[in-house]
Design goal:
The protein is mostly helical. Helix content is 74%, strand content 0%.
């Protein structure tokens, strides 16, 4: 009688290079995988639990992953089945669909998450190209949650001035993101 490997041990021992490859691929894909799993389960806490379990399964099965192939496709497949298992075991599901429909929706969700990840990367790139004052304004409003009226008062200007600056910045960022996405599409 054969037994399963220990829960945290790979099915086959991994070389140091393969271990580093796994860690690098998983770290690079973590945000995308978390967003993907969040689209399948009820909340972020559950998604983090599912992703942690999926990561352990990926670690154990990484010897079956062919280097140079699409890690995201492989990882989202593992995450999909872990999410389905989580829903089955806990009885928590956003909706009740049959497995074929869930597979179709999950596959489409991967492409959607990839697209938004590319857009997020493009936005980060474009934001870094803004002048310092514009970056500070964007950070204050969109990251720190400062109200435009409060910011205007601190800067001694009219709120309309802040809104006009934001409109100009958003337009510049949108154009930059569109250019960046077009460049990415041409090189892909």
């Amino acid at each position: 009688m054969t037994t399963d490997p220990a829960p945290f041990e790979p099915t086959q021992p991994l070389s140091a290079e393969r271990q580093e490859e796994f860690v690098g691929l998983l770290n690079a894909a973590h945000g995308l995988l978390l967003r993907y799993v969040m689209s399948l389960v009820a909340n972020r806490h559950d998604a983090e639990d599912v992703l942690q379990r999926a990561s352990l399964v990926m670690w154990r099965r990484f010897s079956t992953f062919e280097a140079g192939t699409d890690f995201i496709a492989w990882a989202t497949t593992v995450a999909f089945y872990e999410a389905r298992n989580f829903q089955r075991v806990t009885g928590r599901s956003r909706v009740e669909f049959d497995d074929d429909l869930m597979r179709t929706l999950a596959a489409e969700r991967v492409e959607h998450v990839r697209h938004w990840s590319l857009r997020t990367e493009a936005l980060e790139h474009c934001t870094q190209k803004l002048d310092v004052a514009s970056r500070q304004l964007v950070k204050a409003i969109y990251t720190d949650g400062v109200q435009a009226v409060d910011l205007a008062r601190r800067q001694g200007c009219a709120p309309k001035t802040i809104y006009n600056k934001l409109t100009f910045i958003r337009r510049a960022l949108a154009e930059c993101v569109q250019r960046r996405m077009a460049e990415t599409a041409r090189t892909a």
